[in-house]
Amino acid sequence: MNKINENYLKLGGNYLFAELKKKTEAFQAKHPEADIIRLGIGDVTLPLSPAVIQAMHKAVEEMGDAKTFRGYGPEQGYDFLIRAIIDGEYKSRGIELDMDEVFVSDGSKCDVANIQEIFSRDCKVAICDPVYPVYLDSNIMAGREVVFLPSTCDNGFSPELPDVDVDLIYLCSPNNPTGTVLTRRDLERWVDYATRKGAIILFDSAYSSYIQEPGLPGSIYEIPGAKEVAIEFKSFSKTAGFTGLRCAFTVVPKALGKLNGFWNRRQCTKFNGVSYVVQRAAEAVYSEAGKGETAEMIRYYMGNAAIIREGLGKAGFEVYGGKNAPYIWWKLPSGLDSMNFAAKLLESCQVVGTPGVGFGACGEGYFRLTAFGSRARTEEAVARIMEMEI
Ligand code: MLT
To answer: How many angstroms separate the Cα of 276 from the Cα of each of 56, 101, 247, 390?
Structure first.
């Protein structure tokens, strides 16, 4: 018998979004005529912006010329992109970072899952419920003990501090799946907790560019003392439509001591960096043209979010999120089971969403819709839902 990692046996079924895709494909195979609208997985639909495309064309040309060709790049990312990230993302928020505190990668999904490797196996991990499933699954795979932090409409989707001491805390703001945002006060409370307990916050801020209301923190480092206790993840996926291109970055401040060196060591050993062409594309997101085009994309998706929010609201439903995030967290009429509701929605309106229970037990009774569809399909989905007998 092979010695397998038995922790995998503790994982529930398939990965949430793989399962959702499988079910949708099975429905389509059974009903080839069905005109399905996919508002399940948060995948973007707008094409890449002109500034990004132009930068990639140029980079492709460079790769085809012996004088400018590049082989392996730095595992941490090229200086030109790290500089653009520090200036474009952090300086504007009044945050100073050194070049060796930013690590470019091929996605925040990978980074939030891989980061746990640099911590001891016996760390106790606090994870919100409901939650982006990668934090939970990756820590189950590693065999860690998990403490759940309920995050429901009763606490305004801002979880209480854990009542047992924990070593790692995953926070996501703007939140996937609830679409809500932690305030400055909320983050101060977490930074204070982590400082007192010697815990580390893993702050997933992949959706920060969707924040519309002034005063809401778009980086945990806006909170004094956060560099001593927090690692932050950001991504170009939802900000600039890079879900297929793949580029993100993780900030591991040197104030975290050995963790900065450990993450560097981990990346150098297991990762060969993001391609030159893609890093030039990401750099272009911070150019003047890129910033304008990206803001336009975000406005478009937030317009979809408003259509979903307002449509469901008018129909008398309780909805959360969608104001500073591309996710709408729909509270189903009481007693409705989110899995059954997903099946019913697909059957009767051919609309795909994500059942709240897929994100955790506290997600039961909720349903997530994304604002990443096209305008016309989003309007059509809302119109179909409003005609449905729920
Ligand atoms: C989601 O739908 O939650 C996200 O698209 C998944 C991801 O970013 O990996």
So the answer is: 9, 20, 11, 50
User: For the whole prediction, is pTM greater than 0.70?
Assistant: yes
Give me the numbers of helices (H) and strands (E) for the chain, helices first please: 12, 13
Atom of ligand 1 nearest to the CA of 177: 3
> 131, 204 in Cβ contact below 8 A?
no
Give the whole-angstrom CA distance, residue 2 versus residue 300. Answer: 51
Q: Do 6-48+290-387 and 50-286 show the same overall fold? A: no
Best residue among 15, 16, 17 to mutate for probing ligand 1's pocket (most ligand atoms within 8 Å of CB) is 17
**50-286 — its CATH code?**
3.40.640.10
Q: How confident is the model at residue 224 (pLDDT cuts 50, 70, 90)?
A: very high
User: Over 90: is that where the pLDDT of 15 sits?
Assistant: no
d(CA 291, CA 88): 9
CB atoms within 10 A of CB 185: 10
Chain position carrying tokens 């997101």? 285
Task: Show the CA angle centred on residue 342, arms to residues 237 and 160, nearest 5°.
Answer: 65
CB-defined site of ligand 1, < 6 Å: 17, 41-43, 109, 132, 176
CATH top class, domain 6-48+290-387: alpha beta
Q: Locate the domains of the chain by residue range.
A: 6-48+290-387, 50-286
In sequence order, the 6+-apart residues with CB closer than 8 A to the CB of 243 are: 43, 44, 237
- What's the pLDDT at 389? 84
DSSP 9: G
DSSP letter (8 states) at residue 366: E
